[in-house]
Amino acid sequence: MAAPPQPVMEVAPVARSTRPSMAEAAARIDRLIQTHWNEHGVDPSRPLRDDEFVRRVYLELAGRIPSYDETVRFLTSKAADKRGDLVDDLLESPDYISHFYNFWADVLRLQERPDKHLVLEPYLFYVKDSIRTNKPFDTWVYEMLTAEGKPWENPAVGFQLRDEGMPLPYVDNTVRVFLGTQIGCAQCHDHPFDHWTQHEFYELAAFTAGTVTRPADRLRGAGRSRTAFDPESLAIARSARDLQKQNVERNQKNKAAVAQFLRANVTSVAFVDKKLLLPHDYQYDDAKPLSAVSAEVLWGAVPEKARTAAGREQFAAWVVSRDNRQFARTIANRLWKKVMGVGLVEPVDDFKEDNPPSDPELLEHLADEMLRLEFDLREFVRLLVSTDAYQRQAVLHDPASAAPFHFAGPALRRMTAEQLWDSILTLVARNPWSVQRPTRDEVAATVGLDLEHATLADVDATLAGFLRTYGRNQYKRHLDEICGYRGLELVRASELPAPLPLGHFLRQFGQSDRQTIEGSRTVATVPQILAMFNGPITHAMLEKGSVIYDNVTRHRPQEAVDVVFLSVLSRKPHADDRHLALEEINSADDPATGCGNLIWALLNTREFIFIQ
């Protein structure tokens, strides 16, 4: 189960000096929640014990259960503020980056190849690196909404390219993700369940209507655009056209791959001045079909300093403006749900008048805190997990209930697919970081072509090198050589290709195919039962060389029971647990087999799969 060592990423440090002010801010949130409890007669759940806290906070901040050594170290610590110390340690660990990358990968629908001609590994690296460097969220979003160039030149363009060729869904998805508002129905007609009109949708879409992704599109730009007669774009377009013509005229098996590779090298994001027209079948009285619309925001105003900028920049400035409280509300609500299990507004992307927050005062306070922290998402998460409200036992929540969820404690949840995979990996692999997602520079070295001067032979050679490195099949072979086990790659979920094939453990347990926003699921299925009962990852855990196997077999049966429970459930066994466990170990053919049976049994309990 071992793999070659590799340096793990450096993470921006947490400012421990701010812990007293963080504690005061957490207390203010607790007081607001206490007021809500008093007004609504809510009986809060009990505070967490240390063994319950260590397991939950690892799952919440590191995306995995703690290892045996980590659990023991925390439970035996005599530090005055060991919970605060652990929170800060986790927030500046690679585990935190991995876990929150998985969270954003689901929201942003991250894939390496959403289309055959798109090479978006640099964009996925950009998202992960933005989390690693703790880039302020408003800066991060503004970069994605305004970026220009190719993915390996400016990786933030991946957000735009994820909806390439779909300018109206792009606007819908952007508003839904960052402003928590569903306006998609208004693409085709006035919204049937909200006040948005089709004309308003087109007015908003007019800001980004001039976004183009190919040189030929730039050449068709009109007005004062600096790219309308861009000589470089013209040369690239002509060269790409000539190379494609030569490619079409030859008879080789890789002709289609070369065409896709050429298209990848001419795909870049730019902006030209362009009017957006209403659809030909527009049916309302406020405008005529095919008439041009003026760009207008849905509420508020474009910040004054951006009003003379290009449309994409005006749109981005409005989205992330401090005066646009909906931006702060939306991300505060998303992270509240991420930490507490249920949003103050549910669904988190459906803010509207007839869907009020369960605690309006708390939501507005959280938005204020997000603004005070200047969109430092990690510090905001640190604030939430520092509250007494978070450090309470989980409570049942029925998402199908029409009644509002009055917070009494974090909602009881199943682990996500990624949490489950990374938790099992903690029990199996000695080096879960043996492979890390490729960087922008690594991809650029294999994919970039100088199209102005390239020959078809240059294209063939560059494509061959790219496929040897990042071709889907070749990359899987590369992973198998480093960390493969029975067809699985024992590496963190964040570092695996996306999307994974349907039969993969992660997909069986609900990892999204990354086609829809937040498309993951945590419902139980029969394939999950089979995977846990007899899947290759379970076998890996019970074989010599795995972390837990080697830890357990070094101890006598009485001690081994403690090691198993602390490793799998992060707690010591109760008296009944110990009796049954020793009975199983002593009745087995040998102690190792008995311990393996105990590990297998605990893995298949609800206590393991659920975040208590």
Instruction: Tell me, rounded to a whole number, the average pLDDT.
Output: 92
Helix fraction by DSSP (H/I, runs of at least 4): 40-55%
Strand content: under 5%
* Class from helix and strand fractions: mainly alpha
What integer value in Å does the Rg equal?
Answer: 26 Å
Spatial strand arrangement across the major sheet: 1-2
Rounded to the nearest angstrom, the distance between the terminal CA atoms is 29 Å
Number of helices: 29
Instruction: Kindly state the number of beta strands.
Output: 8
Task: Itemize the secondary structure elements and their pairings.
Layout: H1 19-40, H2 50-61, H3 68-76, H4 82-91, H5 94-108, H6 121-132, H7 137-146, H8 158-161, H9 167-179, H10 198-205, E1 211-212, H11 215-219, H12 231-249, H13 255-266, E2 270-271, E3 276-277, E4 292-293, H14 311-320, H15 325-340, H16 360-372, H17 377-385, E5 413-414, H18 417-428, H19 440-447, H20 456-470, H21 472-483, E6 484-485, E7 488-489, H22 505-508, H23 526-534, H24 536-541, H25 547-553, H26 557-568, H27 575-587, H28 591-603, H29 606-609, E8 610-611
Helix pairs in contact: 1-16, 2-4, 3-26, 5-6, 6-19, 7-14, 12-13, 15-16, 15-17, 20-21, 25-26, 26-27, 26-28, 27-28
Overview of this structure, please?
This protein is an all-alpha fold and 612 residues long. The protein has a domain at 138-320. The chain is 51% helix and 3% strand. It has 29 helices and eight strands. The chain has helices at 19-40, 50-61, 68-76, 82-91, 94-108, 121-132, 137-146, 158-161, 167-179, 198-205, 215-219, 231-249, 255-266, 311-320, 325-340, 360-372, 377-385, 417-428, 440-447, 456-470, 472-483, 505-508, 526-534, 536-541, 547-553, 557-568, 575-587, 591-603, 606-609, and strands at 211-212, 270-271, 276-277, 292-293, 413-414, 484-485, 488-489, 610-611. The strands form four sheets. The chain has a two-stranded antiparallel sheet with strand order 1-2. It has a two-stranded antiparallel sheet with strand order 3-4. A two-stranded antiparallel ribbon has the order 5-8. Helix 2 (50-61) packs parallel to helix 4 and helix 15 (325-340) packs across helix 17. The longest helix is centred in the N-terminal third of the chain and has 22 residues, at 19-40. It is globular and about 80 Å long. The model is unreliable at 220-229 (pLDDT under 50).
